[in-house]
Amino acid sequence: MKEYRDKKIIRALLKRIEEETQGLPAPVRIMEVCGTHTMTIHKYGLKIMLETAGIEMLSGPGCPVCITPDEFHEAALDLVTKRENLVLATFGDMTRVPTGKGSLQTAIPAHDSLIKIVYSPEEAAEIAKSQSEKEVVFFGVGFETTIPSIALTVKNAASAKLANFSVLSALWLIPPPLRAILEAGETRINGFLYPGHVSVIIGKKPYEFIAKEYGIPGAIAGFEPSDILLGICAVIDQIKQKKPGVHIEYTRAVSPAGNPKALALMEEVLEEKDACWRGLGTIPRSGLRLKKKYSGFDAEVKYGLKISGKTSDQPGCRCGEVLKGLVSPPQCPLYSRKCTPESPHGPCMVSLEGACLIYYKYQE
Amino acid sequence: MCLGIPAKVVEINDSNLGKVDYLGTKVKTNFSLVDTIQVGDWVIIHAGFAIARLDEEEAKETLDMLREIAKSSE
């Protein structure tokens, strides 16, 4: 793994990119869809080195905590503050997202209720197993990387008749918002760096429409600095050859058909729905909900929650535009002044994969 | 959230549950989402689940290519 971070290799790749971009209209704008890619790009100083080489990297919508509208967070807040004897289990980042009703971190749970940070959906189901007197709701957020594990947890809970367990699901699919961004046409994008771990699950086919219908090249990349640069080389190569496609550069983990077992499980447990994204609005068939067979485990059904997906960004917050690649974090008037990791005004300053937090961490 | 960690499988039972070693820490892992995993394999771990088996041959090929690029730019 160390060699993927080797200075000599990184320098050689950057040199190659700089040579290859000569003669292309500058800058070549590449959207890194995934927040974990944003992290590598900034952590290793690639952002600035790539600018020198003629590449402008744009952050995309690939942070599930960031794109989940406030209404989901508020529904979770309502559950744990208004219902007694309930455990709301969720991933750590989710507890810090600020909404009009505060955040889970500052919430005061109802009598005998509590908020529990978990590392895996299974951990939430285990709490339900061991504390049968409590209702346990897993506030599950994620893209295709995380969705199969949530689907399997629900399937197992159904087999075990774990009646006190349910999932408040904020589950999002990556390809539909990319179409939405391209359709909106507000951002010039010359290529995409597709997310490595989403692609581990879905493979390359779901991105092919981008090359075919929009003529924009892309590459699936891993998470080490040389993985990112290899992905960029592949994108530039496609631009020069005028042969847009979807290249897999993360071949040690991604196969063209994805993970068939995980895909079958998603298909078995979940179904597509139109969903509302922060910044992007409603996107057809971009979210998932539990199928009818599993509706007993759907917290929205179980507790009669009504989540339309509305979101009201905090005044001045530009997270919505950051998620579309329209502005970079320093262009937001709140960034690093009013909005900091200690006192975040929007989710992009909360999540470890949020563009604002990443910029703040490595540039300020 | 899509952070995946490469780790080595150190234990796996018949129900596809076991452990991986990540930088010396043994982490409980569910292997139900991947096929034919054996002790000693490298996998990508995400939220307590192995989501992919890492292909050592492919990893080696990529590294060879990277070394070649570094060599040719010297």
Shape of chain A: globular
Q: Largest interface, and how many residues on either side? A: A-B, 54 and 32 residues
CATH topology of the largest domain in chain A: Rossmann fold
> Based on the structure given, which CATH architecture of chain B is correct?
Roll
Number of strands of chain A: 11
Shape of chain B: elongated
> In oligomeric terms, what are we looking at?
heterodimer
The string of secondary-structure elements of chain A, in order, is HEHHEHHEEHEHEHEHHEHEHEEHHH
Write the element-wise H/E pattern of chain B from the N-terminal end onward: EEEEEH
Mind describing the biggest β-sheet of chain B? 5 strands, antiparallel
The radius of gyration of chain B is 15 Å
Strand content of chain B: 35-45%
Give the termini separation of chain A.
28 Å
Main sheet of chain A: which strands, in order across? 4-3-5-6-11-10
How many domains in all of chain A? Answer: 3
SS-based structural class of chain A? alpha/beta
Cα separation of the termini of chain B: 38 Å
Q: Main β-sheet of chain A: number of strands, strand sense, barrel status?
A: 6 strands, mixed
Give the overall average pLDDT of chain A.
Answer: 95
Percent helix of chain A: 25-40%
CATH class of the largest domain in chain A: Alpha Beta
